[in-house]
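Slide 14.
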Amino acid sequence: MAREASVERNTKETEIKLKLNLDGTGYSDIETGVGYFDHMLDGFTRHGLFDLCVRVHGDLNVDDHHTIEDTGIVLGTAIKEAIGDKKGIRRFGSCILPMDETLVLCAIDLSGRPYFSWDADFTSDRIGDMASEMVKEFFYAISYTSGMNLHIKVLTPGNNHHMAEAMFKSFAKALDMAVSFDPRITDVLSTKGSL
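Slide 15: predicted structure.
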């Protein structure tokens, strides 16, 4: 049974429809109105081997804040719903990913307890048509709506595009690891007996 979720969220600032399949093949169909953000979500989808369809109509006449943050909220909600009861999954995932001169660490615990740790600095205000500060806001929103402990740390800084892309790809690889099944885990991986 495929682990899928479809989530819609409509506010005065954004209208979002999103469908996620954790057991996909890397297929993406993404339109957010922010080209660089689309590129990052496509990288997340392909490198995590998820299937992701997203349509966002946001108040881009204001800026890209609501569009990107709200997409993070919806994606975090979809991740939580698609994972289900967490029985049999590895729970933890991590990846240290190189992108040319940059090196980024991402570590995840699908504990049900949100926590977000960020250690990164961008040196430009924008990456393509996206505000660079929105990378942090996006991952923060995912962490808190999915109940995920998420750490992202730039180990070796460099080009802003490379750092952001390494973040999205390392997040994808870490999440793929965390949601994958291990035949030795028959219940939830917790001494508490629940997550």
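Speaker note: The helical segments are 35-48, 65-83, 133-146, 160-179.
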